[in-house]
Amino acid sequence: MSNDNKKEGVNKIGINWYPGHMAKTKRLISEKLDLIDVVIEVVDARIPYSSRIKDLDNLVKNKPRLIVMTKYDLCDRKETDKWVIKYQNEGYKVLTLDLTLNTSIDKLISKEIDDIMTEVNAKRAFKGLSKNKPKVLIVGVPNAGKSTLINRLVGKKVVNVGNKPGVTKDLSWIRVNNNFELLDTPGILWPKLDEEKVAFNLASFTAIKEDVLPLDEVSTYILKMLYKYYPLKLKERYGVDFIDEENIVEVYDAIGRKFGCLIRGGNIDYDKVINIIINDIKNGYIKGITFDLLNN
Ligand SMILES: Nc1nc2c(ncn2[C@@H]2O[C@H](COP(=O)(O)OP(=O)(O)OP(=O)(O)O)[C@@H](O)[C@H]2O)c(=O)[nH]1
Ligand SMILES: [Mg+2]
After folding, report:
1. Domain map of the chain by residue range?
2. Which CATH number fits the domain 18-184, given the four candidates 1.10.3210.10, 3.40.50.300, 3.30.450.20, 3.40.1050.10?
3. What secondary structure does DSSP assign to 224-287, as a single string?
4. Is 167 in the pocket of ligand 1 (CB under 6 A)?
5. Tens digit of pLDDT for each residue in 6-61?
6. Mutational test site, ligand 1, from 29, 72, 161, 189, max ligand atoms within 8 Å of CB
7. Ligand 2 centroid, distance to 131 Cα (angstroms)
């Protein structure tokens, strides 16, 4: 947790977070783009800005787009809803979803796709072309919930899901009730990371592989964000009610003692403390949080 480590950690995120297979996924998506009628951009409702792929317009051009915010059950709805309104004002269609619920989201999505296709088909008819069965591209950062969304739409497990980035490795077509076809894709990020906050937000919500992350930096970031925006949750979970640059080691010590993370000699096992904090966020034990706050 030294300052040197901090600098190195930020660099590490910058260097390692865009593995070659993401470039390949983008190339494959580009090749298939002519077939696509609608793009569903899957966004994590807890980071409604940071989890939007920054160069997506270059990739999917002007294809009609629907933004689906997953994990609505885990976010701070008051804050996330501000982003929904912002994106709607920018002209996007936006849906917020809790994919753990047993509601029939296929009707919701079908309706949005039908709306978009009415326009698409009108243009096709004008050109003398027949109606299309919609082909829908699902894109998003790693771990956003793309494959979960597809399984929910189909009504059974047709693609693998998992609470870590990089679960989907290939592009695959899936048919939904004869209504439309979906293209599941591996999560993608963008090559140049110029916003440090975005990197830490993506890291906090497991869009970046753990083995390339400075985990102590990520857990400290999480603690500071909780202190700044959700102090009651910080207090409730960790018994901590104040954090600044000076007392951060004491904070880790206090959390370590609270959770019994001790090594021989009564010293604190910092790796364990870091794991607890990261897993609390990863597994959604701390709910009602959004780390992108408009006007902040
Ligand atoms: N609580 C909650 N968990 C969700 C929701 N949607 C997805 N998840 C969880 O998020 C994790 C990632 O889901 P995936 O569908 O595998 O994500 P993905 O975007 O396909 O990830 P990659 O294929 O790795 O890019 C899984 O543990 C899901 O159970 C949601 O609305 N609420
Ligand atoms: Mg997937």
Report:
1. 18-184, 196-282
2. 3.40.50.300
3. HHHHHH-HHHHHHHH------TTTHHHHHHHHHHHTT-EEGGGEE-HHHHHHHHHHHHHTT-S-
4. yes
5. 433 344 455 467 778 899 999 999 999 999 999 999 999 999 999 999 989 999 99
6. 161
7. 29
